[in-house]
Amino acid sequence: MTRQEIFNKVADHLLTQGKPALFDEIGDCAYRGQDGSMCAVGCLIPDELYTPEMELKSVDTLLKAEFVLPGFFYDNYTLLSDLQIIHDSVAASGTFRYYSVPSTDPASVVDKWCSSLAWYAENHDLEKSPKMLERFASYLEQQDRELGS
Q1: Hey, which of 12, 36, 100, 143 would disulfide with 131, CB 3.0 to 4.6 Å?
Q2: What is the pTM of this model?
Q3: How many domains are there within the chain?
Q4: 113 within 8 A of 15, measured Cβ to Cβ
Q5: What is the domain range of residue 144?
Q6: DSSP labels, the chain
């Protein structure tokens, strides 16, 4: 997979899923959540390669350990680590800030991801994914309707 293909798959996955993948009630993020959800990196791990022992480990740790992962993980370590941070955090003034308890408002989570992913794309020579473009177009249409009222 190319960097753009990875970015598009992750962005579209997160915006479609609409909620973080959580490991437990405390709010620890997971590659595979208890409800079948998947995080930014988890959606890139084929089911046949996933093991529960991966949970609560960073991308860096997965790559250094004996886990079998798709080859593109090794060539795109920084991108994958950054996307993991975006899943696990919210954007704050162009930087990422960890949060300990995910928002219970799905729209808020999706908006924060969309903003973080847009900032990341603009600053890392990537195009916005199709779902991001749809979301921005929808937002602009809503703004036009509100201004026209």
Answers
A1: 12
A2: 0.81
A3: 1
A4: yes
A5: 3-148
A6: --HHHHHHHHHHHHHHH-S--BSSTT--B-SB-TTS-B-TTGGGS-TTT--GGGTT--HHHHHHTT----THHHHTHHHHHHHHHHHHEEEETTEEEE-SS--S-HHHHHHHHHHHHHHHHHHTT-PPPHHHHHHHHHHHHHHHHHHH-
